[in-house]
Amino acid sequence: MTGHWEVPKTEWNVPIEENSTLKAANYLKRYKAAIEADSLQCVGSYVFLWGQKQERTPTWYGVFLEDGKKTESVDVMHYIWNGTWPENRTPQILSFTINNKTAYENIVLKANTAYLASLKIHDFEKDKLNFRWEILKESTDLKDGGDFENRPKAVEFTVISNKEGELKFKVSAEKGAYRLFGYADDGQPHAATANIPFKVN
């Protein structure tokens, strides 16, 4: 897992979280490079299950979400240890944008103005997808070493339309830093997730 101290930051100095698909790809890449490649010294592998907890965000470090759904990283562990992918795989994130901008583009929104968030998903089995959205204040309860952090409060926002991974919305929040979280589940106990930090001016 890539730590919050290892990633690019926005202009307002908050770390940009990798989406669940990129996290899973990094698990596989690092396993192959550091564990599988060392057949002489390495006798096995395991995942340290940190559990689900708030640490910078509620989705950063766990391989399960708050509601218990598995992320794509669980699929990768299945593949590594069994040599085959699960029969039903977790949805994958293709892209996540607000008005066609990614998390790396320092998104600034105006209050009470309509914006379009788009979460594009690939599902291997073409399961019907369920989308959920949430806006949280940027966390200010920042600790080190895994100490307990309070989950930021959810922020109310106006939904203008919400259909098949496209959310047209308005925020009426006060000035400050926030994140839009998008979740997509496949009706199975799997879900993809991503978030975009943004500021309200």
Report on the architecture of this protein.
Strand 7 and strand 8 (191-200) form a beta hairpin. The protein has one domain (20-200): Sandwich (Immunoglobulin-like). It has 201 residues and is an alpha+beta fold. The strands form two sheets. Strands 1-3-6-5 form a four-stranded antiparallel beta sheet. Strands 2-8-7-4 form a four-stranded mixed beta sheet, with no helix packed on it. The protein has helices at 20-36, 72-82, and strands spanning 92-98, 107-109, 115-122, 130-137, 157-163, 166-171, 176-185, 191-200.
Topology at a glance:
Blueprint lengths: L19 H17 L35 H11 L9 E7 L8 E3 L5 E8 L7 E8 L19 E7 L2 E6 L4 E10 L5 E10 L1
Parallel strand pairs: 2-8
Antiparallel strand pairs: 1-3, 3-6, 4-7, 5-6, 7-8
